Amino acid sequence: MTQYAVTGMSCAACVARVEKAVKKVEGVEDCAVSLLTNSMGVEGSADPAAVIAAVEGAGYGASVKSEAKKNAPADVSADAALLEDHETPALRRRLAASLGFLAVLMYLSMGHMMLGWPLPSFLDGNMIAQGVLQMLLAGIVMVINQAFFISGTKSLLGGAPNMDTLVALGSFASFAYSVVALLLMTGVSGDTGAMMAYHEDFYFESAAMILALITVGKMLEARSKGKTTDALKGLMQLAPRTATAIRDGRETVIPASEILLGEIFVVRPGEQIPVDGVVIEGAGAVNESALTGESLPVDKAEGDRVSSATMNQSGFLKCRATRVGEDTTLAQIIRLVEDAAATKAPIAKLADRVSGVFVPVVIGIAVVTTLIWLAMGAETGFAVARGVSVLVISCPCALGLATPVAIMAGSGVGAKNGILFKTAAALEMLGRTEIVALDKTGTITRGEPEVTGIYPAADVSESELLRVALALEAKSEHPLSRAILRHAEKSGLSPEATEDFEAIAGRGLSATLGGQKIIGGSRDFIVEQATIPDVLAETADALAGEGKTPLFFATNGKALGFIAVADVIKEDSRRAVEDLRGMGVKTVMLTGDNERTAQAVGHEAGVDEIVAGVLPDGKENVVRELQSKGKTAMVGDGINDAPALTRADVGVAIGAGADVAVDAADVVLMKSRLADAVAAVRLSRATLKNIKENLFWAFIYNLVGIPLAAGVFIPVFGWKLTPMFGAAAMSLSSFCVVTNALRLNFFRLYGENENVIIEEIKKKEVRNMEKKMKIEGMTCGHCEARVKKVLEALPGVAEAKVSHETGTAVVTLNAEVADDALKQVVEAEDYKVLSVG
User: Fold this and answer.
1) ∠ CA 814-815-821, rounded to 5°
2) What's the rounded mean pLDDT across residues 170-193?
3) Any catalytic annotation for residue 439?
4) pTM metric for this prediction
């Protein structure tokens, strides 16, 4: 999709005209114009010059966004510059000038004539002079607001009248009718009664008031529209301005935009990471809240990826740039939000069809209204007032803004919380979802096995069983082996050396430890060489029924016990599934695991239906079957679930991290929490509800307002609407629609229970946080003991593992502890802390 900046649009009719013109250009497959962001997205292979020419031919201005960015001020983000609100200040100045002349006009026309306020002697009693002065004042206000007349006339002559056309026609009709009355008044000079009759036909104040009130509405609308893009502008302002690159062996501060792919850069504590990269030296804690909404810092070490716009809170990082410019994570997020705003939601199509014919129909209604009242014998002034009221009360803007302001607000709220909608259609469709298919591994479960329990034989200790298992599994590359290694590492154990190691594919491992033969693996493998006690066998069967895998171990023909390993479900998975079911959404778990394991995990998660033994290609067929039962969303990791994500009505990629542009997904979740998938559905439904509310009020406003302005209710209720009140109602309609969309900024994505679980997850992550300190000056075990003692005395430190040989201290935390606090207590013992990360 190619993005363009479009200028000169004022309402939904303008949008329809631009889209119609661009879709005629050769090579354009689709085109979506956003009145909210004054932008246009064009799909296809069309020449940008031809697209721009088509827009200009329709009476508007256009430029490719990449070109528009080059003109952005140096002190602001190029993207943010395109969204900067230049309209509100200009409208404010225009309104101030208009009100100054309008105040004098209203004093003259209303204050003197209706309230008897005094006039200067040269005007008092001279109705022709008063009329001429009113005409001049109204004319000045019209010149100040000439933009309405220029835009409206160009659109009318181009065959596509817009909102400005209605305003210009209404104001000009009032002014022209009043001028005619003034000319006729001069012909009856001296006849006070006749002159007074013509004076009562003056609508100069209406001609000026219409323009002033519409300008008020436009100013309020522009201000509110600016607020709906605050989230997007906030993302744009996150872009780092400078970077410290290593050039010619020296550190050089350069603009972040000048970093080259593969170039080395450094980041110190308190600095933003300028581009995406990989850590090649050093360690630190990086705050990624700008991208993911997660406030807890993430530890980074050699080999870890870092993303642009995140903040290095502690430690020194030397990185190699892997994504620069428009390819960085931040740039991709901004592009996704912009693309979502530039696309049309299906629900907006009705409003677009109505907007395309709205203005010509309104002009027709105004003419017919005037003629009917004249035919009924009404005075000319009364009939003209009814026609003008119809022109100025009609509002295509409210229809045109109803959908895009809600889409922008919803997309912005999602982006701030790590939920990215690629298109407006995806934002709408997710809210209509009836079935959610969930991949098991990595979506419902953590995606990596963990030790869930150690079950030694009667005469064997847990530590002995773990010691043998660690020695045997240390040389294996199997995922279950890594689970045991991670568990042992947390316990502070190191593997002992073994000999004659052998891996028997699909069965188990064997080796020699201290002259004794040790084996480990499945029960079938172990029973060939050792006897397993009945108690252990029964316990293992029960755990296998819960979806866990028992790994048995034996030494010299004697069973030592087993260690249970499983891919456990995430802390928030069960609550997320419950919330989806509570929202009336059916949940289906898809997995390639065997039926027994799938049933255990599915039952624990609480899903409605379980489909086991399906490969990635098979998941697509399952999703196809589910679609026959209702709108289906697929939640997966975006890699092996790609066929199913593409097949689903909405594909949701979870845990995307820096890979925000997962091609197969329509919605991208930055974090790995299933609660975010629920939040996305909840946000989508809230946005869809907001759009419906906006469209309802926009249609109802026009359905009620136009007949009221035309005088339909005068014979029945005596209700009569003057052109001034019509203009005021028109101004408020757009303002109300935009303000209603702003309510989404206060929408609560997560329920109370989800918030509690998320906070518990964060606390657990804090408890499991480790910091590695490099310390100089330790020479013996006594040094280790001193450093260990002072570190573990600090509140929040659970454990400190100190080694004088490596000059390090690995500190495990159960609460947040500042790096400076760790450094201070160690240096108080006369050791030098080189780094904390």
Assistant:
1) 115
2) 77
3) yes
4) 0.66
